């Protein structure tokens, strides 16, 4: 037979070891020792309750928290992120307006309302033609113009907000955040 009780290999300590890995590795860190039995060999009622509560207390997650302060917002970074977000919003707006127009056209809303308006305004001028006024190319052109204006304004306002935040944070210290991590 071979002797397996020789020296154990060295494993350097980890910077962070979750409680589940500690328990699986056989570490005693975080464990609550059970009280020793009394002189007559029986546990007292108080120590039995503490021993039963120990596994529940060891399994409860700990929460680490840190207070951080946002001292500066980089305007270039804010501009890039706000541009991409507003561009995504503009694309979503164009797609939503297109789908809405197609649904309303398939339901016959434009022809019904256009006929009513044409009958109400008919006279010497020939009436108002709603269907030609609200055609898909015209609606998409108007929506695209509005979306481009929204992208430019949102990007400019977010960048300006970053400059204003940096200016005010230099006076009052910035926004403080409390971040929490569950282990």
Automatic annotation (TrEMBL):
The UniProt annotation puts the region (Disordered) at 1-58
Q: Where in this chain does the record put each DUF3566 domain? A: 64-181
What the entry lists under Pfam families is as follows: DUF3566
Domain of life (superkingdom): Bacteria
Q: Compositionally biased, Low complexity: which spans?
A: 42-58
Transmembrane spans: 81-104, 139-165
Q: Which UniProt keywords apply?
A: Membrane, Transmembrane, Transmembrane helix
Transmembrane helix as UniProt keyword? yes
* Name of the molecule in the record: Membrane protein
């Amino acid at each position: 037979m071979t002797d397996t009780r020789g020296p154990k290999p060295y494993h350097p300590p980890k910077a962070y070891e979750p409680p589940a890995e500690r328990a699986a590795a056989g570490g005693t860190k975080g464990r609550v020792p059970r009280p020793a039995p009394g002189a007559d060999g029986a546990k007292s009622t108080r120590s039995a309750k503490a021993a039963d509560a120990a596994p529940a207390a060891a399994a409860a997650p700990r929460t680490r928290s840190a207070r951080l302060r946002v001292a500066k917002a980089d305007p270039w970074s804010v501009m890039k992120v706000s541009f991409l977000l507003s561009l995504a919003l503009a694309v979503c707006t164009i797609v939503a307006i297109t789908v809405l127009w197609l649904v309303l056209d398939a339901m016959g809303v434009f022809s019904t309302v256009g006929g009513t308006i044409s009958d109400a305004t008919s006279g010497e001028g020939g009436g108002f033609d709603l269907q030609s006024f609200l055609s898909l190319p015209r609606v998409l052109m108007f929506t695209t113009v509005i979306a481009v204006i929204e992208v430019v304004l949102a990007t400019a306002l977010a960048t300006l907000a970053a400059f204003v935040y940096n200016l005010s944070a230099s006076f009052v210290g910035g926004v403080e955040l409390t971040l929490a991590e569950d282990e």
